[in-house]
Amino acid sequence: MTYPLIVVPFVVVTVLVTLATRRRPRFAERMASSALTALVLVGLTLVFDNLMIAVDLFSYPEQHLSGLKLGLAPIEDFAYPLCAAFLVPALFTLLTPTASRSALPAQKDTA
């Protein structure tokens, strides 16, 4: 079960960073947009991973998988698009100055 263990740090970081933005404005809107994005990305992953595996473009050693699959695609493949859908907007939110900070007048150097 190597692949599920590789996914765990990505999921943990995504959850922590996303939760760190819960007090920022428009959290609910961001979560709704991320959920919709995740749904689209998971759908695309489902289609294209199954196609690529079906035509033998790549394969996974069974001993490294959890055993859960959606079609031919291992469930672990779906963690990355889910993480991307939530982590990228959360990082953008954390790295963007809040309106209250940017609205403050600049302090003059009195020295």
Automatic annotation (TrEMBL):
Keywords: Carotenoid biosynthesis, Isomerase, Membrane, Transmembrane, Transmembrane helix
Membrane-protein topology: Multi-pass membrane protein
Annotated ranges, domain Lycopene cyclase: 9-94
Transmembrane segments: 6-23, 35-58, 78-95
Alphabetized InterPro entries for the sequence: Lycopene_cyclase_dom (IPR017825)
Pfam families to which the protein is assigned, alphabetical: Lycopene_cyc (PF18916)
Pathway: Carotenoid biosynthesis
Keyword field contains Transmembrane: yes
Localization per record: Membrane
Protein name: Lycopene cyclase domain-containing protein
